[in-house]
């Protein structure tokens, strides 16, 4: 699977051939640090002073490198696919090898950082339900108004929470059909390929 870079990202990475390979390695270290701790303008300004360029150019270069490394790590791109993805940038063979080495050295760490950044979603623990039917009221003697009440128990980081939902049977049937359709979609080859690449 090849990584497709937009023109903006190509432009941001266009600064890399103008600097030394040691500087590109340092940009790689800054990119991983950027993922861990967030942006640090002081680092960009210090690097800009050393290289006699605008700090915005340094920031864009690091952000472009961060994007290249994170997207490649997310998709678990093979070495050959990474080289082919970088080939369109028109860099020298030495720079392409350096970027490949940066990717190979940091992909496990980047994947672990990205997994820590992913939101922890609640998981299913239990379900209770009740069917209520209103047969009549003071104003309407013969009326059938069903309602399904669902008490959903969820686990999130060891804490249990409860959500109470109420709906009519027609909406519940539509929801069930949509969920069954989504489960059926997960069995297609396309979805299996995507899930395999996410893991």
From TrEMBL:
<dbReference type="InterPro" id="IPR017920">
    <property type="entry name" value="COMM"/>
</dbReference>
<protein>
    <submittedName>
        <fullName>COMM domain containing 2</fullName>
    </submittedName>
</protein>
<dbReference type="Pfam" id="PF07258">
    <property type="entry name" value="COMM_domain"/>
</dbReference>
<dbReference type="InterPro" id="IPR037354">
    <property type="entry name" value="Commd2"/>
</dbReference>
<feature type="domain" description="COMM">
    <location>
        <begin position="123"/>
        <end position="190"/>
    </location>
</feature>
């Amino acid at each position: 699977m090849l990584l497709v870079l937009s023109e903006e990202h190509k432009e941001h990475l266009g600064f890399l051939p103008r600097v030394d390979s040691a500087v590109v390695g340092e940009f790689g270290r800054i990119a991983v640090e950027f993922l861990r701790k967030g942006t640090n303008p002081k680092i960009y300004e210090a690097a800009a002073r050393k290289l006699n360029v605008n700090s915005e150019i340094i920031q864009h270069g690091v952000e472009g490198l961060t994007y290249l490394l994170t997207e490649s790590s997310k998709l678990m791109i093979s070495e050959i696919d990474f080289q082919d993805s970088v080939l369109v940038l028109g860099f020298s063979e030495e720079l392409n090898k350096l970027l490949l080495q940066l990717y190979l050295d940091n992909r496990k760490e980047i994947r672990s950082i990205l997994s820590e950044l992913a939101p922890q979603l609640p998981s299913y623990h239990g379900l209770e339900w009740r069917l209520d039917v209103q047969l009549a009221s003071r104003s309407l003697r013969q009326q059938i108004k069903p309602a399904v009440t669902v008490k959903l128990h969820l686990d999130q980081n060891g804490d249990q929470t409860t959500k109470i939902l109420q709906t009519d049977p027609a909406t519940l049937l539509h929801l069930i059909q949509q969920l069954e359709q989504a489960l059926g979609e997960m069995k297609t080859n396309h979805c299996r390929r995507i899930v395999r690449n996410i893991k």
